[in-house]
Amino acid sequence: MTWVLVGVLAAGTLALKTFGPLVAGGVQPPPALVRVIDLLTPALLTALIVVSTFSDGRTLVLDARAAGVAVGVVLLLVRVPLVAALVAAAVVVAGIRLLVS
Amino acid sequence: MSPARSVAVRRSAPLLLPTAALGVTFGLLASPIIGVLPALVMSAIVWSGTAQFGAMSVLAGGGGVSLAMGTGLLANARFLPMGFALAPSLSGSWWRRAATGAVMVDASFALAHEGEGRFDPQTVVWSAPLQYAGWVGGTAAGVAGASLFADPGSFGLDVLFPVFYVGLLLPELRGSARRLVVAAMSAGVALVLVPLVPEGIPVLAAAATALLGLKEPS
After folding, report:
1. Do B187 and A47 make contact, defined as CB atoms within 8 angstroms?
2. Tens-place pLDDT, residues A42-84
């Protein structure tokens, strides 16, 4: 059964990722759909940020990650390079965890 | 390497370490549940943290294989609209379009966005090798029992994902009130849904706020 799980997850994920490119490849969508596609990236990124910052499985949590992301946001807003913001955020999070553990 | 390739490789590089760390966690977590080889093969051919962790959390909680499949695939349902978003920017033979869709991950999708609904397929393709190597290599280290990164949290590595996404999001938001509105709505939807529905659904539902684009801009 384990291999069935592996196979189904692989085939299903492949199908989800390739269906759009296969049936709608190179076709110019109508303007309304272009606007939706354009908004999908910020909508998706925001959702990923929120979920990876404030959730632990199905529980909402406020922990060191929130502080790290806050530092990252501030640094990125003042146009600090991404890699520097990443390092600073990780240091903040690791530091807080070290202090509270 | 062409400029597009080296830019894609360089821009996706910051995620190599956290992706590998997450891979180690998956290997450590999954090998006692499904065995060493299935855990490794799963990372190699599924290549999706959300689906794999989702499926493992079901099995670890005593759920059956079919529930694990359903949870894993539901967690990846966002790839369906993402594939349709990518499609207009893809030309060439069917297998080339399918291959580009197949190697798409969240980060490369966002990196490739050029605005006006257009995506650079080269960025999607050339962001893939590092991410794939990190994920599969990390899993291999995890199933081998490497505990150096046992918890990506120990070095603050888990915070790299949201901060990386913030780095991609901010340029998207500059000068667009509409994108700002959608981002705020998306954040609200995701926060409300996290405790209520299975993993993966909050992101999918929040991404649906992009449907605001169906309305003509005023």
Report:
1. yes
2. 999 999 999 999 998 889 999 999 999 999 999 999 999 998 9
Q: Kindly state whether residue B198 falls inside one of the protein's structural domains.
A: no
Give the amino acid at B121: P
In sequence order, the 6+-apart residues with CB closer than 8 A to the CB of B153 are A93, A97
Across the interface, whether the CB atoms of B179 and A60 are under 8 A apart is answered no
B94 CB neighbours in chain A (<8 A) are 22, 25
Domain coverage including residue B127: 3-174
In the three-class reduction of DSSP (H, G, I as helix; E, B as strand; rest coil), residue A42 is classed as helix
Dist CA B103 CA B93 (whole Å): 16
For chain A, how many structural domains are there in total?
A: 1
CA B210 to chain centroid? 18
Domain count, chain B: 1
Q: Per residue in B26-51, is it b (16+ CB within 10 Å) or e — as a string?
A: bbbbbbeebebebbbbbbeebbbbbb
Q: What was the ipTM of the complex prediction? A: 0.93
| Predicted structure pTM score | 0.88
pLDDT at B96 over 90: yes
For B83-110, the DSSP string reads: HHHHGGG--S-HHHHHHHHHT--HHHHH
Residues of chain A above pLDDT 70, percent: 100
Asked if the C-beta of B172 comes within 8 angstroms of chain A's C-beta atoms, the answer is: yes
Average pLDDT over every residue of B46-58: 91
What domain range includes position A61?
Answer: 31-100
Q: Give phi and psi for B115, each to the nearest 5.
A: 95, 165
